[in-house]
Amino acid sequence: MENFYNENKAFIDEYLAKIEENSKKEAEERERNEKERQEMLNQMSLEERIFYEDSLSVTSAITEKFLIEKRKPFIDEVVRWTSLTKERVEYIISEKGLEDKIDRSLNSVFVKDLNEKFPGAELNYSGVLKNELVDMYYEKFKVAIKVVCSYENDVYRVGKKAAQNRTLEANNKSIRLIHIYDYELLDEVVCQRIYRMLEDLLNDPIVIAGARHTKIGILDYSEARDFLNLYHIQGAATANVYLGCYYGGELVGVMTFGKPRFSKGYDYEIVRLAWKKGVRISGGTKKMFNYFVKHFNPDDIMTYADINKFTGNSYLKLGYKFIQVTDPDYKWVSPDSTIALTRYKCQKHRLIEKGWGTKDQTEDQIMIAHGYNKVYGSGNIMLDWQKGRKITYKAKTDVAPTVSVQAKPETKAKKASSSFSLGDLI
After folding, report:
1. Gap between the Cα atoms of 414 and 397, Å rounded
2. What is the mean pLDDT of residues 13-40?
3. Among residues 298, 322, 299, which one has the least CA distance to residue 393?
4. Containing H/E element for 385?
5. Handedness of CA 238, 242, 244, 250 (dihedral sign)
6. Between the CA of residue 262 and those of 180, 232, 233, 268, 354, what are the distances in Å?
7. What is the Cβ-side half-sphere exposure of residue 230, based on CA atoms within 13 angstroms?
8. How many CB atoms lie under 10 A from the CB of residue 197?
9. How many helices, marked H, and strands, marked E, lie in the chain?
C-alpha cells in the first residue's frame, strides 16, 4: 500500500487538493446563497416570508419522497411532514404549480370518483360547519361528506370530540354528515363497502317492494356472515340469532340479534342490520324485527347506531327510543394510515406482551413512540325498545326526526341522558 502511495503521490496529492478546493468553493457558494436568501427575506413582508418558508417545507417534503422512495407523496403525507394544515398545503401546491408532483389516490381521488358517479355535489363546501369545509355536500339529499386525515385529526391536535361535534353541528342544520377516514380508504374491502353504502344513499334503488312480498327465515351463521361481509360496512359479527329477508327467493336483507355486549340489563341487542345493494323493501326491517319479537318474546332490546355515518332512523321507526350518545370511540392509526388498531388491541398489557413498551409507560406514550396517531370518531347513539311501550314516529327529514312518546310503565329501569334531546342528535 505504501509503495502504491509513493508511486502515485503526485496524482493523489493533486486529487486531494482539488477535493479541498471544491469543498471551499461549495462552502463559499452556500454562504453566498444564504446571504442572498437573507437579503431576499429582508425585503419581503411577513406574509411573503411565511409563504416562502412554507413553500420550502412543502417542496422539500415532495423531493424527499421522490429521492428516498421513488414515488409521489400523498397529500396527507406532505401535511404530516410539514405540520401545516391541509388547506395551506393545497394552497401552496396550487400556487407553485406542483399538482403533478402529488399522488391523489386518497381523498381527492375518492371525491373526484364519487362526484363523477353522482354529480351535483358542491365541493369544499363551507355551509355545513362553521370553522371548516366539508369535502362534498349534496343539497338534494341533505348529505355532507368529510374525508378525515388521521394526522390532522390526532386527539392532541383537535381534541377528543372534534368528529362528534361536527356531526352534531351538521345535524342542527338537518344535514347528515358522513365521516370517512383515510385508513378506511386505504383498506380495499372497507373502501368498497363505503362505496356501496354511498351508492345506495345517493342513488335510486334498483328494487322497490313491499314487505308483504317477502318471507322471513332463520339463517345459519355462514349465510349471514357471507351476506354481512359483503353489505355491512363493519362486516360480520358473532350473534345468537340470524334472520334473513327473502324477496323472490333471494336473500336481500339480514338482521342479527345477540346478548348485549356492554349493556347487560337488556335481553337482546341488535348486532347487525344490512340490505343488499340497490334493494329497498318498504317495511322489511320492521317485518324481520316483528318476527324476532314474536318467536323469541324479549322484554327489551337495545342497539347502537354509529353516527360517524348513520342516523339510527331505522330503529326509531321500529318503536325504539333514544337513550344517550356514547363517548367518542378511538383508533390508533399508523403513520402511513394503512393500519388502524382498536383500543382493545392497544391495551397496555397487550402492548407490553408484544414488546412495544414497558410497565412505566402509558398506552398513549407507547403508541406515540411508535408514530401512531390517536383518532377519535363521532361515537354511537344508544337506543332501546321495550315491550308495551308505544311510540309515534314522525320524521320531518331523514336526519332529524321528531318523536313523540306515549310511555307505559317500563319493564326495566334504564338510565337515559337528560342533557340531550333526540331531535338534536339523530
Report:
1. 28
2. 77
3. 322
4. strand 380-386
5. positive
6. 25, 21, 21, 11, 27
7. 13
8. 19
9. 16, 18
How far is Cα of residue 233 from the mean position of the Cα atoms in its chain? 12
Q: 253-281 burial by CB neighbour count: b if 16+ within 10 A, else e? A: bbbbbbebeebeebbbbbbbbbbbbebbb
CA 333 to CA 372: how far, in whole Å? 5
Give CA–CA dist 369/355, Å, rounded. 13
Nearest to 146 by CA among 200, 113, 107: 107
pLDDT for res 418: 30
pLDDT in tens, 283-335: 999 999 999 999 999 999 999 999 999 998 889 999 999 999 999 999 999 98
Local structure of residue 103 (DSSP, 8 states):
B
Q: For residue 355, which phi and psi values (nearest 5 degrees)?
A: 80, 20
C-alpha pair distances (Å), 310 with each of 2, 144, 336, 344:
79, 12, 27, 23
C-alpha cell at position 372: 401512531
Strand partners, 391: 405
Q: Is residue 381 very low, low, confident or very high in pLDDT (cuts 50, 70, 90)? A: very high
Instruction: Write the single-letter amino acid at 332.
Output: W
Evaluate whether 218 touches 290 at the Cβ level (below 8 Å).
Answer: no
Q: Which cell numbers in the block locate residue 282?
A: 318498504
Which residues have C-beta within 8 Å of that of residue 16, sequence separation ≥ 6?
A: none
What whole-number distance in Å separates Cα of residue 386 and Cα of residue 266? 9
CB-based contact 151:373 (threshold 8 Å): yes
- Residue 108 Cα to chain centre, angstroms: 15
Alpha-carbon distance of 348 to 354, in angstroms, equals 10
Cβ neighbours of residue 281 closer than 8 Å, sequence gap 6 or more: 207, 209, 210, 211, 214, 245, 247, 252, 253, 275
Of the listed ranges 86-95, 168-177, 295-304, 377-386, the least confidently predicted one is 86-95
Length of the chain counted residue by residue:
426
- How far is it, in rounded angstroms, from Cα 207 to Cα 101? 44
31: phi then psi, degrees, rounded to nearest 5? -65, -40
